Structure formats: structure tokens, C-alpha cells
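Work package 3, deliverable 3.1, input record:
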Amino acid sequence: MSNPCFRPHRPSIKTVAYRILAYLILGLGGFLMLYPLIFIVMSSFFSAAEYNAAQIGFFPIPNAPTWSNIKALFFVGTDKNMIYYYRNSILRTLYGTLNAVLTSLLAGYVFSRLRFRGREGLFLFFLSTTMFPTVFSIMPTYLMLYRFPFAGGNMVFTGGHGIYDSALVYVILNGPVINIMGTFLVKQTLQSMPESLEEAARIDGANRATVIFRIVMPMIRAVLGYIAIINAIGLWNDWQVPFFFTRSTKLQTVASALSRMTRYMSTEGLIPNYPGMMTLSLMLVVPSAIIFFIFQKNIVQGLMSAGIKG
Amino acid sequence: MGSRRNPMCKHRSVSRRRDAIVAAVILTPMILWWVVVSGIPLVFGFGLGFFEWKVVTNPPTFVGLENFITFFTDASYLRDLWRTIWIGLSSTGITVICGLLVSLLLNSRIKGKGVFRTIWYLPAVTSTVAITQVIAILLVPGQGINGWLLSIGKEQIVLETSFSQSVAAILLFSLWRGVGPNAILWLAGLQSIDPVLYEAAAIDGADRLRQFFHITLPGLKPMATYVIIQGIIASLQIYEPVAFITHGGPNHETRVLTLRILEDAYTNFNFGMAGASGLVLALLIFGGSLGYYFASTRRGKEESV
């Protein structure tokens, strides 16, 4: 602006004060948001001996930081289960996320681009099934898995233990199920986009699969990315499925291992091995934090547009 | 598409039928999978409320509405229900208001908005289990927060003996976790308000406060509906913070419905009541969603007038 009449106006005291207040609140609040994670990182480096001896304040800075806790999880002891925990967490997260994105893309396409009788009704039906709280289905799901026919020693519906406590639990529960949230987002996004590109492709002879994967999918990359991240983080942090539906140590995920340790501690009434738990928490929290920081722009934008559509 | 303009054209029904076939081909595997994973347990859980089933080995017996009558006449269930509702409402209220305030700050002319947004949203992606351990450590008698309280001559915080402290812990944790996403949703709402309105108001001489009440707040109404209802629905299902911080509170005093359901199912083996409570909770959520549906469609009618 080279208008000679333009004078840069000095911000008033009120504006400056308001800005300072903003920085203060956002900064202090931001610190509080990060505090538990900082705490987890710092206390993971305490040796058990120093932990019990010292007085833990708000900032547990170890005098003799040690890697022994982390090493113990991976290398020491009869059970090097940490590897299994990580393997299970990673595999389950990848599998579940892939399925979620795939089904959201396909179902979202079906519900927005294909016209058939009962389309809206069907969608509303699935939407209404999300009304039921997850705790509601834990017990019935457990029974269903336990009595799964022709598996794990079952004749039809009775006998053994079905697929309880087997890898099949993850395969089935995190398989290509209809993902309502994802389908909704894809549907809303597609509904606001013109069909011209797809029509042109179909006129040129492309079949549906090509249209969906070569044309539609790149168009809605951002939404699919958002769906992927949200599902991935949710799966990574999920401890309930392994906790309620499996028993063997080798099938646990990092999250459920931590929850079992917690549960065990409180029921046994032992003095918990806090540094050990903090280290396990660290293992759990760090990967999701890293993924979050890498994709945070996508997450924030996705959340904002989801809110507007909702 | 020409067929859309001419309703007499046969193309429409043919393409409709083709669409239906493609839809069926794509959806059927997913729907079948859904039926196994969610559908059957849902139906089963739904029906569970109408049976009495106390032990795994004894077969369930049909008792109709008896479980529901028990639910609404038994004082402990009613207390759990009431608790769930008011903890849900308070937690939503606090989180939503703080979220709005934070979003106003985030929307102002400051530097580093992206950084702040990221930091404030981070708690929402952390694992509740991990964070509650931090809380437990900080409240170990003599350590962390309690150590500091002792050193300044105050009493320690012992969740196991204080109901108010337990509730505060739950509310604070929910606030910590929920402010970020809430603030970001509000931010989306703020940014959808046409800046022209503010300029016009400033020209007409309205100060910031008046602008806030006459432009910002009304402009946020749609987002407010979403945020509030979505918050209520989520907080009615609160489970992990209660389970891991207070374990149901001093003497079951912070036991919310979700905890009660799991307790009935896994500790008391009273599957019938667990099913019935689950159904009641589901109806509450359904009521909340209906409320949102009506609120948002009514708003739509207002705008078209």
C-alpha cells in the first residue's frame, strides 16, 4: 500500500494488553497441555533405586539418568515381550487403518455417486447404530467371539473357546467393516464436488474401479488422510479390544500391555513400578506424538471441515 | 445427463438399476462384515436387556421389562444415571466454554497460531491410560503435587477419600483432553463468519464488545449446536478417565453408567441388567442426537425465512 495518506497506526494499549494476555494464556495453557508428556519422558530415565529414594517434584529430573528402563523392556528378562507388543500394535494399526480408508472411500462413493432406492434410509440406519455406546457391545462381542462356530474347538456354537484369544480377533474386528464416520466424511466431501471428471472418464470407457481409484481417490486425498490418521491414532491407543478379547501375552498391544500393568497393580495392591510404567507409557505415547506432529496440519484442517459439515 | 432432464427417458431406470447392482456389489461384503462384527453383538446386546441372565452356565430367562423397571426403581441405578448426566453436562459445559475462549485467543492477531493449535490439540491424541498414570504418580502421598501441598502446609489430595476431589479430577482431565479439539471447532466456526459484517459494524460505531455479542455469538450458533450436542453425547459415554483415575470413586460415588455396565457384566455376572443399562444409555444418546437434529433443522428453517 503506497498510499501517501496511509499512516501506520500504533496499536492501542488495549490491543497490546489483549495480545499479551493471549500469549500468556495460550503459552501457559500450552505448557500444561504438554506437561504430562514431559513428565513421562523425564521419569522414564530414572533408575528404580533413585526413584524410590528421591522426592519426586513437579519436574522429575533424574540425577543419574539411565537407559536401563528402556533397555529392560526390550532386552532384559525372560519375556522380551516388548517386541511382540510393538509388532502387534503396528500390524493392527496398519491393517485397521487400511481397511478404514478403503471402506470409507468405497462406501462414501456408493452413498454419494450411485443412486438407488433406499440409499438414504440405509445410510441413516448405519448412522443410527453409532448411537450405541461401545461398552454396550463388549460383552456380546465377547460371547460372539467365544462361541464362533467351527473355530477353536467349537462345534456349532459350543464346545471350545471360539476365536477368543487368537490373532483372528484382530483380523475380524478390524477388518473391512463399514466405517460410518469415514463414509460420512467422504460422502459429504464428494457431494460438494462436481461429477464432471468422473463422467468424462466413464464416457471414455473407464470402469467403476478405475473411476474410484484413479479419479475420485486423488480428489479427496485430504479427507482420506484425515480418516487414516484419526483411525490410526485411535487404533494405536486402543487397549480395550486386546484387553477384553485376548489373553496371551504375545497377542497384546503396547496400549493393552500398559492397561494390564495398571490393572494388575491396582488389584494386587502392590506398590506400582512407576518408572517401568512410565517407560511403557513413553513407548506408547512417542510414536503417536510423532505421527501427530507430522500430520497435524491435516488433522486440524480435517477436524475443522468435519465440524462445518457436521 | 440427458435422462435427468427428460423423465420419460428409459435411461434413468436402467442407470438406476445398474447403480443399484454396483452398489450391492461394493457394499455387500462390507455389510456382511459389519453384521458379524457389530450387527450381531448389537442385536444380542439389545435383546440382553429383556432377559434375566445371572450366571454364564444357567440359561437366560425372558423377563420382559423387568430389568428396566428395576433400573428405574432401584436407587443405586438412578444415582448412577443421574451422576452420568450431571458429570456429562458439567464436563461438556466447562470444556465448551473454555474452548470458545481459547479459540477467540487463537483467532486474534498473534504469531505462532499453528504452533499453539498443535500443542493444544496434542492431549486429544494421547493415550488416556498413560496420562492417568502420571496423575497417579503426582498424587502419591508425599510426592509430586501432594509433596508440594505438604511443604506449603496444606492437606494432601487423596482421591480415595474425597468425592469432590474425585469429581474435580475427572472434570479437569476431561477439560485437559477436550479443550483443544473444541477450540479448533470453534475456530472453524469463527472463521466462517463473514468479515464484512464486522467491518460494517465498525463503521456503524459498534465497539468490540458489541460486535462480539451481535455478530460473533449469533454467527457461531450452528457450530455451537454441533459442539454442544457432540460434547454431551461423548461425555455421556465417559469411561476411561473415571475407570483409571477414580476407579468409580470413593465407594462407587463416581461410578458412571458405563462403569456400572461393565461391573454388572464382568464382576456381578448380571448380564440382564448390563444389557438394560446399556439400552437406557443408548436411548439417552439417541435423545441427544434427535435434539441436535431438531435444533439444526429448525435453524435451517429460520434461515430460509
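Chain A touches chain B through 86 residues (CB under 8 Å).
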